[in-house]
Amino acid sequence: MDAREVLEKLVSGEIDIDQAERLLRLDYVERIGNHTVFDMGRECRSGIPEVVYASGKEPEKVGEIVERVVNKKDIIVVSRASAEYYDEVVRRIGGEGVAFKPEARMIIVDRRGCSGESLGKIGILTAGTSDIPVAEEAAAIAEVMGCSVIKGYDVGIAGIHRLLEPLKKMIKEDVACVVVVAGMEGALPSVVAGMVGVPVIGVPTSIGYGLGAGGIGALTTMLQSCVPGLVVVNIDNGFNAGATAALIAKMRRTR
Amino acid sequence: MDAREVLEKLVSGEIDIDQAERLLRLDYVERIGNHTVFDMGRECRSGIPEVVYASGKEPEKVGEIVERVVNKKDIIVVSRASAEYYDEVVRRIGGEGVAFKPEARMIIVDRRGCSGESLGKIGILTAGTSDIPVAEEAAAIAEVMGCSVIKGYDVGIAGIHRLLEPLKKMIKEDVACVVVVAGMEGALPSVVAGMVGVPVIGVPTSIGYGLGAGGIGALTTMLQSCVPGLVVVNIDNGFNAGATAALIAKMRRTR
Amino acid sequence: MDAREVLEKLVSGEIDIDQAERLLRLDYVERIGNHTVFDMGRECRSGIPEVVYASGKEPEKVGEIVERVVNKKDIIVVSRASAEYYDEVVRRIGGEGVAFKPEARMIIVDRRGCSGESLGKIGILTAGTSDIPVAEEAAAIAEVMGCSVIKGYDVGIAGIHRLLEPLKKMIKEDVACVVVVAGMEGALPSVVAGMVGVPVIGVPTSIGYGLGAGGIGALTTMLQSCVPGLVVVNIDNGFNAGATAALIAKMRRTR
Amino acid sequence: MDAREVLEKLVSGEIDIDQAERLLRLDYVERIGNHTVFDMGRECRSGIPEVVYASGKEPEKVGEIVERVVNKKDIIVVSRASAEYYDEVVRRIGGEGVAFKPEARMIIVDRRGCSGESLGKIGILTAGTSDIPVAEEAAAIAEVMGCSVIKGYDVGIAGIHRLLEPLKKMIKEDVACVVVVAGMEGALPSVVAGMVGVPVIGVPTSIGYGLGAGGIGALTTMLQSCVPGLVVVNIDNGFNAGATAALIAKMRRTR
Amino acid sequence: MDAREVLEKLVSGEIDIDQAERLLRLDYVERIGNHTVFDMGRECRSGIPEVVYASGKEPEKVGEIVERVVNKKDIIVVSRASAEYYDEVVRRIGGEGVAFKPEARMIIVDRRGCSGESLGKIGILTAGTSDIPVAEEAAAIAEVMGCSVIKGYDVGIAGIHRLLEPLKKMIKEDVACVVVVAGMEGALPSVVAGMVGVPVIGVPTSIGYGLGAGGIGALTTMLQSCVPGLVVVNIDNGFNAGATAALIAKMRRTR
Amino acid sequence: MDAREVLEKLVSGEIDIDQAERLLRLDYVERIGNHTVFDMGRECRSGIPEVVYASGKEPEKVGEIVERVVNKKDIIVVSRASAEYYDEVVRRIGGEGVAFKPEARMIIVDRRGCSGESLGKIGILTAGTSDIPVAEEAAAIAEVMGCSVIKGYDVGIAGIHRLLEPLKKMIKEDVACVVVVAGMEGALPSVVAGMVGVPVIGVPTSIGYGLGAGGIGALTTMLQSCVPGLVVVNIDNGFNAGATAALIAKMRRTR
Amino acid sequence: MDAREVLEKLVSGEIDIDQAERLLRLDYVERIGNHTVFDMGRECRSGIPEVVYASGKEPEKVGEIVERVVNKKDIIVVSRASAEYYDEVVRRIGGEGVAFKPEARMIIVDRRGCSGESLGKIGILTAGTSDIPVAEEAAAIAEVMGCSVIKGYDVGIAGIHRLLEPLKKMIKEDVACVVVVAGMEGALPSVVAGMVGVPVIGVPTSIGYGLGAGGIGALTTMLQSCVPGLVVVNIDNGFNAGATAALIAKMRRTR
Amino acid sequence: MDAREVLEKLVSGEIDIDQAERLLRLDYVERIGNHTVFDMGRECRSGIPEVVYASGKEPEKVGEIVERVVNKKDIIVVSRASAEYYDEVVRRIGGEGVAFKPEARMIIVDRRGCSGESLGKIGILTAGTSDIPVAEEAAAIAEVMGCSVIKGYDVGIAGIHRLLEPLKKMIKEDVACVVVVAGMEGALPSVVAGMVGVPVIGVPTSIGYGLGAGGIGALTTMLQSCVPGLVVVNIDNGFNAGATAALIAKMRRTR
């Protein structure tokens, strides 16, 4: 029953105002619903695979979700996962096209058949050793999305010369974006953004203590940075940094 | 005197350890200094014009800085400026190639002679009317950097249909990036990031009150967003959002 | 061009994957857009009049918005407005059906012709004298939405007996909801929620100083309250409290 | 000894001012005390069952409280309870009319004999899977209070179409109120409040990390929301949301 | 109609359950109301005069409140008041028994006829010159309540010897309590509490900057103090400190 | 060598300015040192027993401290202690005059020989069951200092009538001070302070969740309270509350 | 009356325990007092001139303090002062030896007759132009204390080469300490501390906006820095930074 | 290829602008890189040994880093380490010159052959027993850097006389700097800074609870202190305090 019908019935007295109002509201929601039975799902909309966040969910629960989705999606990523989750996933859908990346804490279910051409190149740097798992998460999702990743880990600001070698390589290889992962004072992304000519995505990590503990200090530093070209994601959110970097890299391909 | 000389003198007893240590440190700083007399300046390094932040500085001070820099740089941008600053700048360096954009609170000194080809296209959206000055700042810097900007203002989440028209136009025109400016609860960037296939830069504005006032609420929402592809700049930092968007747009041109 | 067409062209090689992807995304947004040309607007969806938030906007800007909307909407409310805004609105659309409520800082444009039957009754209490403007804002919007309002102002917790008289009246009149506006320690809503059998909406106000200044103390108290039936809106948000109270009152009418 | 007597004794010199003052204060408190020997208890006052919060108390302690109260109250609810608490309760008062709802972490002791007619209908939505226990808590208390509950879980904002099916059902069934449980950025309640014509109660959950961790981000978003009709309870307080929703539903019954 | 009547009517079918419930709730509130028509008012209950907080209220509003209360109360105190408020009060109720203390920003209306015997002695210290207005507020209310006050201002911790002279005087005079007013790091109350054998009330003031600005630093220091015997009031709340000190001093009198 | 000697040597050239300056500084510190060899120790200065805070220290460490102090002090209190600490203390100094109060988590070493006359009476109330350990700590220290304690536990604000019985007893017994321990919203101290004529010491506890978790909510409410006569100690600091209450009670004795 | 006398009188019954306790406490405080009549004042103790903080005090008040102190002290510094304060000071004590430094907002009253030998050298750097007043305050106090100051202003991190010139000069001149003043992200002190071999004192300034506004961001960055040798003072506290730097420089002189 | 070559090729058309820009950027980074192949490493630059932060890293990881660095560095310090880490380090590089300091949680690898002359003296004080590990960390690094350390532990503010003995010793021995470690209210550094004539480095520790818990209270107090000469490091950062103190002590040696 569309709006016209409702209004006609209201005028003719078949329904009262309360009923009419509710019917119109229903019609409004239904119309959105009828026309958003998506054929292509989320990959199409944002270019990013379906993601299941494992942390805080039981392995069986995660396995169940993957099993339900696997027929509809070519690529599924389970983030913040351990080997236990991997075993559960394999138990349910078999091991074909399923990979576990322990450093990135990620399970990747990729059944596209072909890996396709490379989407582009990005760089990923970390200030310290403890920042590596977050960086690996960024790298894994970027690779799933078709990027090559050039890595430079533990190049933190105290020894600026350690930074130069990987940075030169990234510039030579013409990366489209650099992801910089840093905890503590979080100054590295500013330094990098001042030296490269491409967008830099800063990822604060929850390393740090005292005032600004839990990554708030690093996040604040990155947001306060005076160097343009530096954008930020939430603390420890390597996933989003890697995914956005891949979207930027994709710009090169999609003229 | 390089490190070898210092060490020789130390061994021969001409200098003591304290002196040697200081000389080595001086040598270390000097070597960096000698080799970083940049010829090309900041534009080269980051692709972003020289910026003078006017807020909190006297017009004369700003005028003085512009006058000093204008011969070395082709493009200078004075941000958070009023007409008073514009008058002072024109008084000192003349009006040629100097423009004042009141909505963006920005003075642009552009003496490149030619504006050059378009770098690419970006989209800029605001949730409310009060967010417009921040959006205009983003637009102005992106245009200076050679981008075309498609704008859609006051399309906030309460009426999602107001958002669709400008969004369709942006997708049709194939923008490389969408800047979304929003205060209060700051939910618009998430919605947009869920609908477009390109990176979204969220700019929280200092609109809002109560818990999360001053833009903290909007910033938090954007950082917490579950939708990948959304990165964030600091509250009211339209400048950085516009500059980064232009860098992303430039990806298309620079294969 | 719908999804099928896109896919056919892709298979036939007329378009490439990048083009196909963009076309599909455009199709997705367009489909939402085509089907959400709302006939009934916002009143229908949420039962709440169109609102213009005046604070931080020029009177001319507000006047312009009202002028644009007045033909499409029966009721428009301008909140946080002064007499200056009222004059501007009257100058543009004439004074018919336009009222200014200075205590509530609100302009109401009501051109429904008839005020209709009463929707129901709500109660509004304030702890102190300084909380009254926020309470008046709640009262004004509730009245616009068809409610009768029983008020009891300055009945704060220090003298609990001052509270009893208005509370008894509210229970006798069988209000559907009580809005309680309080700053400082914000304990009054808990006390009221413990005594009445209907939902209580607590509105913290920005009265207060020291630790918990700006209303944070009152907000925290209300959220921490052990007494069920107490829900909260943001600091000073009388508007939302009044509107929600009216929606609750409407429950009585709409069986 | 009432106030008059005190004052007479003071005048006659039998007591001094200090004693008189203390006696009057005692009289003041006693009078309140004498007249507030409640016959009907808390159910009457607020329409909500007696609640025992188990978290942080030993099972024996909780069992002891339940045993003491069970003769005076028809309905007792133990919240945040595990099976261990349930066993203890059954050990003390027997299993008749005692139910344990593990998902809601709740024990319900209901000895009313009859469950009575339905009070009304409410809807409960969650954004993610992790928000379900809080939603179940809301559902359990609402059902105890006589409501039917329509549930829609894991319908979060990333896939807005997943939201439409349950929302349509809720509108068709004419729910009196929708409880929306969401962590992370907490944007779902705003979206729902913009689509339904009834009050929405937002429940932020302690899901989330980085800036705004522990639910502060979701709470802030909900409080900052521009959409009227949305009220909020404290983080993870499903109990209060369910109880208030039931009070609102009750409005329909009690004209 | 008392509870018995209500229940009888319910059983006989004269009223239904909803009506009965509402009547019982009304009865509950009414009974509290009938029996708390206080004869002696607030002075009796807490030994503290009626207070009107002027800040944020118009002089006329304050004058109106004083005028209304003056016949029922012997002592009224208007806090945070300027001369303008004093003039307004005198204009309305005449100048008899009305005093203005500009340093304490307080108007005192005292119409008891006799000032009575001294209640006891307290000491008041400030760390700096800027803390004096808060200290004067404490002194004024303590004097109104019948205390003698020994003052020692600007004796801050940097020069501990400046503290000793007034402290010795306070101990000699056997004060019952020492109020210590301090901003910045707020360490003075700890030092004093370590040296005297009576309770110390710390009053943080909003002097200070940087981390802990607005008095939060001083408040935190006082709460964290390891020295027992130190209790605290909110930032700048000289009024409460003076009133509580007077209540403590009164202990001596009221055996 | 006193200051005069130093200056004479400086003038005569025996020492230079640097040496003179250091000698004077040494003299300054030495003079304080020589004259502060206290005979009476801390009991004299503040009327409060020596306290050892056990939390975070090994039992052996605590035992060692007690052993060292026990000959110099009549009374030692070990706070936040478990049975393990008690065993260690008894192992070292024997069990005579050593008591362990598990609910108060306190060991008391009292070797005064006689307990002496009662110092006075205080009242202690808690809002909930979980607040009891903090209240017991307050009670234990007050009793050590010679006070009788009237207790009323679990009388929280939701059922105000539960509060009246213990409050009446406290007023009848003429307590000098009431300690009120409360978590969550922390409103109980305000209510009590409005009903009694003696100082009230509020103790926020770390019970609570969401916004204001960890006791910050309760602390804020107590500091923001409009009711004079209410002073506050830090979260969970039952010790300080009990000690200060005893100091106030002592006022009655020490005219 | 010393402790022995008190105890004798107590034993003989001349005084009771309460009196004895109070007398002993008085004796304790008196003994500190008698022996701390300082001859040399504060300069001796800490090597830092007497300071009067003008901000928030009336010019007359400041003038009065200076007038009172000027005969006892050789050097007085009035910080956060304007010309108006200078005029008042000169009006009262004459202009001899009185200087006003407007950039440092400081009045210096120096009546030592001779300025003496140089104490040593320090360096002062600022990141931006807006940080200069804080740096000038540091420089002024360091010079009063006998230091030579090498300045390098506006050398912020965006253009690291601007930093090298002044840094090389500071190392050549062998400064004892470098004060680095920076707002926004506050990363400059870390960079400097990584390059020099002397202590660095970071001064965060209240420049900055959004998350970490008011200097909190810069303070956090400096505290979180991984580079040892960097210590921090409070936001905008140039005075303390300059004074401490001078104390460090003095180390060189005072072997 | 240097800048000139690049520009020549650009003019001759061999390369386009994009390529030229990237080549110039590469040249810029390469030049820094080529000239910062440091010969002397970090010891030279800052006078502080190479540090490995063990907390959050596996023992093997730490052992691997030490093994890699040990040939290039004379001194390596592993901080926040347990015996397990020590065993791993010894297993890999042998025990020669390797020491474990359990109280300081530090492993020191010192293969300089000779310990050299003493650099100078510093003092280290703690307020309480729980602050000792942080103080020991400061002592260990200062000793590695060649300082003698005079310690005074558990001298907290409650008993100021306990402070005087170690303070006198420090002044007599003419320490160059005093490190003061304190949690809770953190007032001790202010008191010490008011009594000594040398710089004081305050180290807040994470001891404390309630408002200002986790060391924020102590940090705030130290930053707010009015006593000049007091500088601060982050919470629990004994390492930085000890290292900076050693740098200050070194001033004496390095004229």
UniProtKB/TrEMBL annotation, chains A, B, C, D, E, F, G, H:
GO molecular function: hydrolase activity
PurE domain mapped to chain residues: 120-255
Record GO biological process: 'de novo' IMP biosynthetic process
InterPro entries: P2CMN_synthase_LarB (IPR039476), PurE_dom (IPR000031)
Pfam families found in the cross-reference section: AIRC
NCBIfam families per record: LarB (NF033503)
Name of the featured protein: NCAIR mutase (PurE)-related protein
Source organism (scientific name): Methanocella conradii (strain DSM 24694 / JCM 17849 / CGMCC 1.5162 / HZ254)
